[in-house]
Sequence to fold (126 residues):
Amino acid sequence: PAPGEDPAELSEDAAAAPTAARAGGGDADRRLLGIFREVLGGRDVGADDNFFKSGGHSLLAVRLLNRIRKEFGQDLTLRDVFRNPTAATLSRRLAGAVADAIEPEDAGPVAAPTLRRRTRAGARRG
Fold:
């Protein structure tokens, strides 16, 4: 530390730097982090803070999912939140869900279904 600087303040700033840098990511990242903060009652959480360790629980996770659905138009699951409990990891999951919605799983040709005409006689046989 330089003369006149408090070492404790430096360590706090250094600890906050990665979170602040990540919070400055893309627009979707910032919006998702804002939803995390809103659902957690305005707590100042960073992109790498665990939702559940920051006061979240399953009912708030449902509220989080509803806000994500409203904001991004994507349906995630409770399992997604439990497996991706930070805004950073859930943002990557959300980006994957958006990509899945845009790109079909199998882009190959699809055969048209075969249509058969049923007659009354055919229906009676069985």
